[in-house]
Design brief:
There is one protein chain. 46% of the residues lie in helices and 16% in strands. The chain is an alpha/beta fold and 279 residues long. Strands 3-2-1-4-5-7-6 form a seven-stranded mixed sheet. It starts with 5 loop residues before the first helix and ends with a strand.
């Protein structure tokens, strides 16, 4: 039996569920709730793939990167809670479960979470979360389309919470957004974040996977080079200071080393960055 490419084989939530349940302890994905957002048939697929086809999944470079990226954004999320932010805005949240996995810590620190995604996706997420993840009184759900000329619900929320401390995070989102739209969003956000605000996101390099993220709305997806100095310069012009920069290859070595030692190939298409406003 020949399995299709990982991008078709399983979505991010499925791979996280497989990693959390069927990987060896040192390679286990911390997102133990990912499986709860999957329908029964997808859970069965995860069980089959996790038990009998794990090595084939491991042969895909994205597999180790997803483990490393999940661990990375978990730490970004928890660092913000410990730092005393008032809100965490999770744009393009998809099947992310951090607001629920870390609910007790968020409530103990009085931190609210705003989850945003495409209108149909966020409505579905809200309904599923209420039934399958429990709690959630600290979570606000808003529709968002970063490819649209304006994002009225997000703008209204930011206007209402001006002067408060935010972490804004976008995991795996920027490659699907039109370059000019994403740059306009970054420029506007830099003016709104405040001196203690942080933006964390990842992006693809222009020379890899040319058609990744392209659609009718996204003729030229957002891309940046892997060079730290160039990336810092781009963000300086948009109103930011660079706090952290790391390539996906370096991240995999740092946070998914055992998988690489077992022969999983290195994912070398993305970079991850954390920023704060320059003024």
């Amino acid at each position: 039996m020949r399995l299709p490419n990982l991008s078709f084989l399983a979505r991010v939530g499925q791979v996280r569920a497989i990693q959390s349940r069927y990987e060896t302890p040192e390679n286990r994905n911390p997102d133990h709730m990912a499986v709860r957002l999957l329908p029964g048939g997808k859970r069965l697929e995860c069980a089959v793939r996790g038990r009998w086809f794990l090595n084939r999944l491991r042969a895909e470079p994205f597999y180790a990167y997803l483990l490393a990226r999940t661990r990375y954004y978990d730490q970004v999320f928890l660092d913000a809670v410990d730092r005393g932010v008032d809100h965490i805005l999770n744009l393009g949240c998809g099947g992310d479960t951090r607001a629920y996995r870390f609910e007790s810590r968020l409530k103990a620190h009085g931190v609210g979470v705003v989850e945003l995604d495409q209108p149909e996706a966020i409505a579905s997420k809200q309904a599923l979360a209420r039934v399958r993840l429990g709690g959630g009184a600290h979570v606000t759900y808003l529709p968002l389309d970063l490819n649209a000329p304006v994002c009225p619900e997000l703008n209204a929320w930011m206007d209402a919470h001006a002067g408060e401390r935010w972490l804004v995070m976008l995991e795996g989102v920027s490659p699907y957004v039109e370059k000019t739209r994403f740059e306009a969003f970054l420029r506007d956000l830099a003016r709104r974040l405040g001196p203690e605000g942080v933006l964390a996101y990842d992006f693809k390099r222009p020379e890899v996977v040319q058609d990744f993220g392209r659609s009718e709305q996204t003729a030229e997806p957002f891309r940046l080079p892997a060079d730290r100095a160039q990336v810092a310069d781009v963000h300086a012009r948009l109103g930011y200071r660079t706090q952290h920069f790391e390539t996906s290859a370096a991240l995999c070595s740092r946070l998914a080393g055992p998988l690489l030692a077992d022969g999983c190939p290195v994912f070398d298409e993305d970079s991850l960055i954390q920023l704060s406003p320059s003024s």
